[in-house]
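Handover notes (outgoing to incoming on-call)

Open items:
1. Hemoglobin: sequence verified, structure written out, both below. Nothing else pending on this one.
2. Nothing else urgent.
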Amino acid sequence: MNNYRTIYEAVGEYDGIGRIVGLFYPKVQRHPLLGPLFPEDIIPVMEKQQLFLTQFFGGPTLYSDAYGHPMMRARHLPFPITPERAEAWLSCMREALAETGMPEELQEIVIERLSGPAHHFVNTTNERET
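Hemoglobin C-alpha cells:
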C-alpha cells in the first residue's frame, strides 16, 4: 500500500470501490451457488455494497450514515451461507480485483481483509439448513 493510509485510498477511493463492485456483481449473478441468493435487480445491492466497502476499507462512514450500524452477520442470517458459498464469493472478488489491474500485493491485502468476514457469515453447512 506504500504511501496510502487506508485500503480505501489505495484502491482509488469511492470511484475505485465502485469499479470493483461493478466488476464483482455480474460474476456473483452468474455463479451457480451465489446467483440464486441475490435479487434480479442487483443495483440496490451494488449501491449498498459500495457504501459498505467504502467504510469497511477506511473511507467515510457512508453505510452507517445511511443505514445505521452494518451488523453484517445479522443481515446475512436469512440466507444459507455455506463454506462453499463463502469461498465462491471470495473467488468472484479475486476475479474482479484482477480485472481492475491493481497491483497483486494490493489484491491480496483486499482479499485478506474480506476473508474473515466472508467466513464469519457462514451459518450452515447444508444449503437446506438455516
